[in-house]
Design brief:
Layout lengths: L20 H8 L8 E5 L5 H7 L8 E5 L5 E2 L5 E2 L6 E8 L11 H17 L4 E3 L3 E6 L2 E13 L3 E9 L25 H21 L9 H8 L6 E6 L3 E10 L5 E5 L4 E4 L6 E4 L2
Parallel strand pairs: 1-2
Antiparallel strand pairs: 2-5, 3-4, 5-9, 6-7, 7-8, 8-9, 10-11, 10-14, 11-12, 12-13
Helix pairs in contact: 1-4, 3-4, 3-5
């Protein structure tokens, strides 16, 4: 009997089945719901780029899922590559009727929604690394298993992209220190289940946030993010533009979603995700 994983080759369709687009639409595209359409495509460069290019003509709640991304991007134009059908690669188009200065909370909201949705559906505890990483524990070590990319599309739209490593094995990881739900001993790696859970959770959190006019405290978002964020309470080293380095303890998130850092001199400095090149925990 031969293994379907055979000699390092690609996994078979049995191991990594395609998503069921029809079933996902029936479960998620509902008359009074946020999601207005959902398409699953075999491959694309970037789902974020695809939605951003058509943001003006598409309605809020458009969802695009790819079985494979060949030019997936993270923050700061970092690449995001994984084998076909090995993860969740999706983007959603939102047009929030919320003051624009509060839109900076949307990637953090997506992190909370993804972490809570995946914890229930995959049975894995996920933690948040500010501003846009999802971490799992593999053998007691924190590893990045997902990332979020938020991009403005015109004046009133934003595209939120989410990439999650689901069934990647150790030898398939793109970089050392990466992880996957499989390696974190998920009780389920069924991607249809995971997509439903993530999008339902995102709809819930987005609805609360919009109803609160984007107020992170009134919507419960600020407290939820802080509770799940492993960056808080740690000493960090942040590389900022112009080769400036900020070191200190990450002590809070402010009302704009910025990371408040207590510096050596006894003061504090708040840094936004847009200002950050890299945040690293220090021993």
């Amino acid at each position: 009997m031969t293994s379907s994983h055979g000699s390092g080759g690609p996994w078979s369709d049995l191991d990594r089945p395609p998503l069921n687009a029809g079933a996902l639409r029936r479960a998620l595209v509902l008359p009074d719901g946020l999601w207005t359409s959902l398409d699953v495509i075999p491959t694309t460069g970037s789902t974020n780029s695809d939605l951003a290019a058509r943001a003006d003509e598409l309605p809020e709640g458009t969802v695009l899922v790819a079985e494979e991304q060949t030019a997936g991007r993270g923050r700061l134009d970092r690449s995001w590559v994984a084998p076909a059908r090995s993860g969740l690669f999706l983007s959603v188009l939102l047009k929030p009727d919320v003051p624009v200065h509060r839109w900076g909370w949307l990637p953090l909201l997506t992190g909370v929604a993804a972490a809570t949705g995946l914890a229930k559906s995959a049975g894995v505890d996920l933690s948040l690394k500010w501003p846009n990483d999802l971490l799992v524990s593999v053998g007691g070590e924190e590893r990045k298993t997902g990332g979020i990319l938020a991009e403005r599309a015109g004046d009133r739209a934003i595209v939120l992209g989410l990439g999650i490593n689901v069934t990647l094995r150790e030898d398939e990881l793109p970089v050392p220190g990466a992880g996957s739900l499989l390696l974190a001993n998920a009780v389920s790696t069924d991607r249809d289940t995971l997509v439903r859970a993530v999008l339902r959770s995102l709809e819930k959190w987005y609805g609360q946030w919009v109803r609160a006019d984007g107020d992170p405290e009134a919507s419960g978002l600020q407290a939820a993010y802080a509770a799940g964020c492993v960056t808080l309470g740690r000493r960090i080293r942040a590389q900022l533009p112009g080769e400036r380095v900020l070191e200190g303890e990450a002590v809070a998130l402010d009302g704009d979603g910025r990371l408040v850092v207590a510096t050596e001199g006894g003061g504090t400095e708040a840094v936004s995700a847009g200002d950050i090149v890299h945040v690293r925990s220090t021993a």
